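Anyone else keep sequences and structure tokens together like this?

Example one:
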Amino acid sequence: MAAGGGRNAPVCGGEHGYRAPQHDGMRRDGGGEPYWSRPECRVWTAVLLLGTCLLYCARVTVPICAVALSAHFGWDKKQSGVVLSSFFWGYCLTQVIGGHISDQIGGEKVLLLSASAWGFLTFITPLLTQITSAHLVFMTCSRFLMGLLQGVYFPSLASLLSQRVRESERAFTYSTVGTGSQFGTLVIGAAGSLLLDWYGWESVFYFSGLLTLLWVYCTCKYLLTEKDLVIPIDYLMRSISISKQNKVPWKQLFKKAPIWAVIVAQLCTASTFFTLLSWLPTFFKETFPESKVSTGGGRRAGLPALLSESGVVFCAGLATPCCWAGGGALPLGVAVPVAVVAAPPPPSAAPVRSGQIPASF
């Protein structure tokens, strides 16, 4: 999606000659380095961390309210599962296109456009359920659309940081911003559960949607100028077609073992994480029926996110030195799961040798 290096930095070796796409929005003044200064980087890191937090606040509204929604609309487990899973059908469709458009027009524009859309959708969801009787169809379509809108976030984030953050600081910055996913799960698990207990499930949607819209407004007002928010027509036309110079060498990429390692790792991580994210509130409510919804569901469901916070930042701090040392991130990727996973590996798991991954990756 987004290039991994700075301006004109090859991402998969000099032999392929692929270079990161550039756009004029990378420089406000038309000259100098494209990277943020240290103060700018700190501010943007905090802002994007908050944005990622709000992303997950909006994403987890339905899982937190799943028991209340099922009781309110008379859904069974199968119908609840349809609503919960519909998000991911939309989420997987906009990943590639989101990264490509971000490379052309700027990741910050795509981030703010999508955030304003999903924030507004989250805010009006309780209102729209009052004007339709097909609640299951509406909530399924709403979650599918939410997935489409949020699917561009992390590709846009990768595009933005790859163009504006120095390579030596990129891994730590991206991981710091990424911890917002755990913070968001904790916030909505605690505050959302209290709102659910005190004011009903509608308040959780209002809370999450309003905070997202407020974040978009403040970011546009204080960090971006009017010129930054304009998307020229030629950028849109360039985002439709990829020039030969910037064409991604997919064939060469998919021949690399590290690419498949990342794909498999992401598949395993996401399938486990999102299953827990979607069903833990319901599980705790049904397993501890004597507890209130706030105590038995949302708060306990945030425990995995709480434990993962330190690991994310710690591993990111080690990843960049490992890569710069020439050994790649493989030793870190092997050592960390062994250290934190309590269960033994399955008998069919084959050991991974460091020599299987090229040093360039």
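And example two:
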Amino acid sequence: MKKSPVFSQLVKKTGSFGSNTVARLYFLLLKIILYCHQVATLVQEDLEKTKEELKNKVMSAHVQEPLNAENEHDENDEDSAEASAEFTSAATYKDRSEEERMTEAEKNERLQKHLLALSSELANARDETKKTVNDMIHAENMRAGRDKYKTLRQIRSGNTKQRIDEFECM
């Protein structure tokens, strides 16, 4: 076996140890270095695969809309006195999931009964002399059967001017 210069230096520096002990330490160190190199190579390969997968996902997710002849316009369009636009169904779609929302209390009857019992306890303990204006408005809305979701539905059902008026009145 040919001894490397590093091994020879280790033997010289650790003269009190036997060369057999130094050789064992040297080979153990080489095994550790080799193992670390293998792990680093695997990590590098995994990183490259992940980058490639991410690049492919980004490229496949990027969908370009086709150009329609309707969207194209010539130089004279901007000069015309009258302009118009048509909304597509995708543009007018709005998320109205809160209108169909079912609260946890509505789903769970036991919880609903418990909430009613607690509400009645609170109603008995409430001091009527310390009600604020907002408390009175809330009580009136609850008596009328309105909650925040119904209010949102009402606001959305009107035209823009009515929506603004409703919102300002709130």
